[in-house]
Design goal:
By secondary structure, the chain is of the alpha+beta class. The chain is built from eleven helices and seven strands. It has four domains: about 70 residues, no CATH class; about 70 residues, Enolase-like, domain 1 (2-Layer Sandwich), CATH 3.30.390; about 60 residues, no CATH class; about 90 residues, no CATH class. The longest helix has 18 residues. The protein starts with a helix and ends in a 7-residue tail after the last helix.
Length: about 350
């Protein structure tokens, strides 16, 4: 086997989806009795994958605590051939009541995040968004989200599995708005792109795909479609990219990028603290309606320690996402009233 083939085989082994029974779900964004679900796996599942691919003696992990943020850095080393390759990432504490359990969760989170750099579980970040039933009293999902076939071992060929970021929901809605307005067959459109479903369209092709939707070929039109001159003009109401986003719509990759850059300028610890305070896995899922409150929160608390101290004192240790919708505005207003730079 050549070195290139060996490398590809190793990447496939690391990136292989977990068994459906090993994937768990939790609520990320809550709206009444509905919640946006996110998938995750236990750290032990990641350890099993590392054992299976590299052998028990073929990987090493080391940890360092960050007292200012109570986060943990994991340095994960794996042996590839004769070389040791190291990746690292930061894990944050959970919201469990016991301090020991919170610290354990930070170690587990750090390991899982470091393993993602090697491809382990990275596909979980590419799963389609799913809103499911949610019980506000127990704070638990009451329905189990479904995994797409490409995310279940043995259910689909590798060609069906996204190997790079794909279109976000907001991007596809923008494309779909043009297809609907111009009476274009979605099946004919997707066939031209060479994919079976929108979730397989690479994000890098978004501009090209949008242009095709705006200027479709005649053979893609549905039977009985009106001539171009008789079609209504697509306005801001029809195209999500042209109208103001609704307060509960997620930022998406494009909307989150400026905020992510702003946080990383203050350091990874600060960015991690912001996600913990908000109760989000990543900023792409932050609702647009939170932006004014978050901007003010970041203006007044410029270090990770200040943010986490404010969370403890103003929110009682909860995250913004843990709060009922009617209490979130009040929580952000408490951030407005805090002395600049002070830890309340």
């Amino acid at each position: 086997m050549s070195s290139d083939e060996s490398k590809t085989s190793l990447q496939d082994q690391l990136a292989r989806p977990f068994e459906a029974t090993e994937v768990k779900w939790k609520a990320q964004v809550v709206r009444g009795n509905r919640a946006l679900s996110v998938a995750y796996v236990d750290a032990r599942v990641v350890m099993d994958r590392l054992d299976a691919v590299f052998g028990v003696g073929g990987w090493q992990d080391a940890y360092a605590e960050l007292p200012a943020t109570k986060s943990v850095v994991c340095k994960l080393r794996v042996k590839i051939g004769q070389d040791w390759v190291e990746k690292s990432d930061v894990g944050s504490q959970s919201d469990q009541p016991d301090e020991g359990d919170r610290m354990k969760s930070a170690f587990s989170d750090a390991l899982k995040r470091a393993a993602v750099h090697f491809g382990v579980g990275r596909y979980l970040y590419r799963l389609p968004q799913q809103w499911v039933d949610y019980d506000p009293q127990t704070r638990q999902l009451t329905a189990t989200p479904k995994l797409p076939s490409w995310a279940v071992p043995g259910k689909a060929d590798d060609k069906d599995r996204p190997s790079a970021p794909t279109l976000t929901r907001e991007q596809w809605l923008a494309v779909k708005a043009w297809l609907t307005n111009l009476h274009v067959s979605q099946r004919a459109f997707l066939d031209h792109l060479g994919v079976q479903r929108p979730g397989l369209i690479p994000a890098a092709r978004f501009d090209e795909v949008l242009r095709l939707a705006q200027q479709p070929r005649k053979e893609w039109l549905l039977a009985g479609a009106p001539p171009p001159a008789d079609r209504p003009k697509l306005d801001a109401q029809g195209d999500p990219r042209l109208r103001e986003p609704l307060p509960d719509e997620p930022l998406g990759e494009k909307g989150a990028a400026p905020l992510e850059r702003r946080l990383l300028e203050r350091g990874e610890d600060y960015a991690d603290a912001v996600l913990r305070v908000l109760g989000l896995r990543d900023l792409t899922q932050m609702p647009h309606g939170w932006k004014p409150g978050v901007d003010e929160l970041l203006r007044r608390h410029r270090t990770a320690a200040e943010l986490l101290s404010w969370q403890r004192d103003a929110l009682g240790g909860d995250s913004i996402n843990d709060l009922p919708e009617h209490e979130r505005d009040r929580a952000f207003r408490r951030s407005y009233q805090a002395p600049a730079g002070a830890a309340q």
